[in-house]
Design goal:
transmembrane; transmembrane helix; Chemotaxis protein; mainly alpha; rod-shaped
C-alpha cells in the first residue's frame, strides 16, 4: 500500500480537527458550569435584594410613624415654648422696672429722712406693681 501525500495531509487534517473538537468540548463544558454558577448567583442576589427592599420598606414605615409621633409632640410642646418666651419677656420688663425703681429710691433717699425713705419705698413699690399689672392686662387684651 502506497500512502500518498494527499492521504497524509487528510490524516493530519482529521487529527487536527479531532483535537479542535475535543478542546471545544472542554471549553463548552467549562462554560456551561460557569453559566450555571452565574445563574445561581443572580438568583441569590435577586432574593437578597428583595429581602433588603422589604426590610427598607418596613423601616420607612416605622420612620414615618415615628415622624408623625414627633410632629404631634412638637405641636403639643409649641405653646409651652411660646409661654416661656412671654414669661421671659415679662421677667425682663420687671427687672428693668425694678432697676429703675431702685435708682429712684436710692436718689430720693439721699436727701430725705428715715420716715420719708419708707414712704418713698412704698410708693415706688406700689407704682411698680401697678405697672406690671397694667402690662399683664394689656397683654391679655392683645391675646383676645
Amino acid at each position: 500500500m502506497d500512502i500518498t501525500f494527499g492521504q497524509i495531509a487528510g490524516m493530519v487534517a482529521a487529527i487536527a480537527f479531532l483535537i479542535l473538537v475535543i478542546y471545544l468540548c472542554r471549553v463548552l463544558v467549562t462554560l456551561v458550569k460557569t453559566l450555571t454558577e452565574v445563574n445561581q448567583t443572580v438568583n441569590t442576589l435577586t432574593q437578597d435584594a428583595n429581602d433588603s427592599l422589604n426590610q427598607v420598606n418596613d423601616l420607612l414605615d416605622k420612620v414615618n410613624d415615628l415622624m408623625e409621633d414627633v410632629n404631634g409632640k412638637v405641636k403639643t410642646i409649641d405653646p409651652l415654648f411660646t409661654a416661656v418666651a412671654d414669661l421671659s419677656e415679662s421677667v425682663s420688663d420687671l427687672n428693668a422696672a425694678g432697676k429703675g425703681a431702685a435708682q429712684k429710691v436710692a436718689s430720693s433717699t439721699k436727701t430725705v429722712g428715715n420716715f420719708s425713705k419708707l414712704s418713698s419705698i412704698a410708693a415706688v413699690g406700689k407704682k411698680m406693681f401697678d405697672m406690671v399689672k397694667g402690662r399683664k392686662a394689656k397683654k391679655n387684651k392683645e391675646e383676645i
